[in-house]
Amino acid sequence: MRDPLSVLTDAFTSFLFGKVETTRLPVRTSTGQAQAVYLPTAAPGLGDSGVIIGREVYSGKGYIYDPFQLYGQQLPAPHWLVLGESGNGKSALEKTYVLRQLRFKDRQVVVLDAQGEDGVGEWNLIAQELGITPIRLDPMAALDMGIRLNPLDPAITTTGQLALLRTIIEVAMGHGLDERSGFALKVAHAYVNETIVDRQPVLTDIVEQLRHPEPESAEAMNVAIDDVRAWGLDVALVLDRLVDGDLRGMFDGPTTVGIDLDAPLIVFDLSHIDRNSIAMPILMAIVGVWLEHTWIRPDRKKRIFLVEEAWHIINSPFVAQLFQRLLKFGRRLGLSFVAVVHHLSDVVDGAAAKEAAAILKMASTRTIYAQKADEARATGRVLGLPRWAVEIIPTLTPGIAVWDVNGNVQVVKHLVTETERPLVFTDRAMTESSAELEDDALRAAEREAEERAAAFVEHHLGDSESTVA
């Protein structure tokens, strides 16, 4: 037992100079042995300005992401690719991200909603909550004075109109236009724009001019009028499908009056269109170009263009070329393009591999939900993911994803608030009791994922040695 004088002396010394620590020699050990004391640290986050997504799994820190805040500093481009199989949380992430972005006054979002149930799109409930009427493109409804988008709308430049007409025809035909067919289309388009001034030109005018070209167009090229008519015949037949075929009603008249392009959220409901038909890429091309010329403006607003089933865009060379130009142009005006696809193989092995690679290169943010092991390896090769991320992708549970933000790779658990939950999880067939069971299962899966993640870190950090003081 220490004498009272020593205790008093130590107390007085500590009061004057602070507590004196003993000096210890460094101990050489491995991280596997010392990790209980010197815990591994997670990579730094993306800052504290923007939209909160959830929390980083390894550290528990909040994970905040905003392409507009990061652009030019940590991000070379504001575009975003979301990958993953169905049922893993892609839809919930998209919806909460949009709802949270709309809290900022200078944000505006367009969604191409290609999925739905009960006759409405998946985003219908969110649109209703915000007091917005979706723009429902439906061939049957269009015949009864439904929504129309005119590819020849005067709001689109003549160059844009001609590019759009070529794309529609090339997508439908499955190959590019030859020089003669392209000339016939160009002549017909120019004549229609020059002669129709008292109303919006429409596709019917182009079809009629292709069938009955003017003699002047033949004389200008020193060819017979019958040759010009023959060159434009296939083009006329393709466009006739939009005028009098299975796609009639949506594009063969003036643009519907009253479409509010100033609303904070604009939803194009494509759920009535067969997702596997040629109509979907044609529709996306028309909507994309129409938006490029009527929606994107130099007004300092930050715009988000979210496309579900985006493989319809990236997998078609002609549509991909249009969107590639849109992404390059829109980046200067504050546009963030969000492409949602199930598998990367849907696009990189398709007919538009070159165009797909260019669009993927512009997507500096990649979010990857659970995939099978072989698909994860293929995704990792294409996107250049680190090996540890590739290995963990097949083990991810719903709501947890690998985020790669220009090389900053983290595992993030997406969080949904109680206010957002009824808007995000819209399965109408699910009862209240089954919803509770699903929540319990989700929480159990999250705990399991976190335990696996911790074990994964322990295993991979236990291989090296370090000097610990």
UniProtKB/TrEMBL annotation:
Source domain of life: Bacteria
PANTHER family found in the cross-reference section: SLR6007 PROTEIN, UNCHARACTERIZED PROTEIN YJGR-RELATED
UniProt protein name: ATP/GTP-binding protein
